Structures are given as C-alpha cells and as structure tokens.
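[Automated response] Your request has been received and processed.

Submitted sequence:
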Amino acid sequence: MRTNHRFSVPEVVIVAAVLGVVSVMTLPKFSQAGTDERLNTLCETLQSVRSQITLYNLHHDGRWPAQVNFVEQMTGTTNINGTADPLDGAVLFGPYLDCVPVNPFTGGNSITGGDWRYDERTGRFAADDDGVTCGIRHIDL
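Generated structure:
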C-alpha cells in the first residue's frame, strides 16, 4: 500500500526560514570575494614590483630608478649609470618589468597619476588610490 505524504504548511515555513537564515549568513562572504581577490592581486603586484626595484638598486650601485625615468629604467635595458646609452657604459641590466602593472583598484598604471606612488629617495613603491579594504589603507601595504 502506498501512502502519499505531503509537507504541512508549518514544515514548509520552517524550511524556508532556515534557508533564509543560511543565505543571509553567506551573502556577505560572496559579496566580499571580489574585493578580497583585488586586495590579494594588489599585494602580489606590490611584492613583485618591489623585488624588481630592489634588484635594480643592487645592479646600479645603490641607486634607485629615477622618478622621471622610472618606466624606461624598469622596462628597458640600462648600464650601471641607469641610462641606455652605450657610450655611458655597457648596457647590461634589465628589463626588470615588462610594463608597469595595473592597479587592480583603479584600473590604471600611472606612476604619478593616482594609481601608483614611487619615491626615488627610498625606492618605495605603493598604491596611490586612497582606497581602504577590510580596514587596510592601500597606501600602507
């Protein structure tokens, strides 16, 4: 003998309430996933560029790339004096970067236009987007 069992209204209401509570608890995690990914990308980019700037410094007798020539010095080949002129010394070093990377929060790659900040006195390379993610200022990374 077969019996047809149907759910009662209170059972359906309870299941709907449980599903609603679970969705409310997990929704913030999913909405933050894109931001966390961009923050991770920013941290990886900063680590990579900073290591290449440090390598430049080691190759060029303790000199950091110049602010005005940053792109050329980091993406091109240079001699010990930081120029591409073979008359100024053998061009032996670089390129250190294929290109200046894109800041994942701004979508741009300018060194002086609000995407990145570079200090030629210290070699510090940082995000310059005035952003804050999870309470962390991007400039402080």
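Summary generated for your ticket: The chain is about 40% helix and 10% strand. Residues 9-140 form one domain.
If you did not submit this request, please reply to this message.
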